[in-house]
């Protein structure tokens, strides 16, 4: 009889929890913010989940991921594509269920979750259940198809960070905080994250989870191992354009970059946009420039509106190639040819031309005095109009000089709109690119 009374009391208490208001706050940054968001504490390394037991109740973990222990170590990845530093479910599966066993029922104040990815594996979609584990008929491991709320669990929150206010938000850092208006979500020993994938268009929609935190009422002040990102933010043309320079992976280069790269971006991004106009096209208003600590062989590349510069390479090129390489990548951001990559009705421009236009602007507009696109004597025999980069830049400069001043602008517009470029060459010069290439080649004289 006594036991029965206790159960009744506990039932009434749960009723109060349901009436209290659960507050879900989501934060997202397309760049490395160090998971610093308003009203969301940074990933903690001394929260109640740090010592908890994590287990997989449902679903399969992807073999290449870092495992469940990464969700409680207080550490987060250093960039947006680190499978080994995240936990995620197997490709092609629709998520699964992760359980946190805190060892004993505690007074839970807040639950936070953190994820980071460059694409649609960044948002978080899950239902959070919690239980003290003491109810009659409690199922500690409710598998797929079993409704936890029928097995002694309470549904605390439904989380979906794929859009905020109707605005889709995918890539970047996502953080979620779950609290209660009373200051306490409840007394729980177990938490169950019932996680769904973010999309079904391909097999790769399972979120890259970086950390799960559980904060106790009256628990210790949170400490974090996540370092603040090293960022410089600036704008151009009266804040029409925004830039983030992220030197988190190479803080030694921040000062130099602010002095030497920032002015190049401020001045040349709007200039390049003016040089490469086309109807109804708007170049990205926000661009990130990231100094990357480990890019391997590549000196630099652009992906959408994010430019990656290899810091190891950059340190050797401060006085020489650094600024020009950045201009080349800024051209790629403005070109935006990748926007219609998935549209089969559009023609993809050849790579040699894409790189040729970027190098044309770099060598003939940005730094003509360095004469970097002149062709050395020993390279003459090999030079082809479609060699790409500076050789093609040389060819384009020659076509502009001898046939059509507007050739770059026309080719860019055609490439951006996914048109066949043969017609553009022919209309503006009366010749094919190949014919022009032969003419250009016979005009080449050794420069040095
Ligand atoms: Ca933690
Ligand atoms: Zn390029």
Q: Could you estimate the helical fraction of the residues in percent?
A: 25-40%
Any idea of the CATH class of the largest domain?
Mainly Beta
Number of domains: 3
Please provide the count of β strands.
15
CATH architecture of the largest domain: Sandwich
Q: Predict the CATH topology of the largest domain.
A: Jelly Rolls
Rg over CA atoms, rounded to whole Å, is 28 Å
Ligands present = calcium ion, zinc ion
Derived structural class: alpha+beta
Give an overview of the whole structure:
With 448 residues, the chain is an alpha+beta fold. 27% of the residues lie in helices and 24% in strands. The chain has 3 domains: 2-216, Jelly Rolls; 230-335, 2-Layer Sandwich (Zincin-like); 338-448, no CATH class. It contains 10 helices and 15 strands. The protein is elongated and about 90 Å long. The termini are far apart. Residues 43-45, 47, 49-50, 72, 74, 211, 213 line the site of calcium ion.
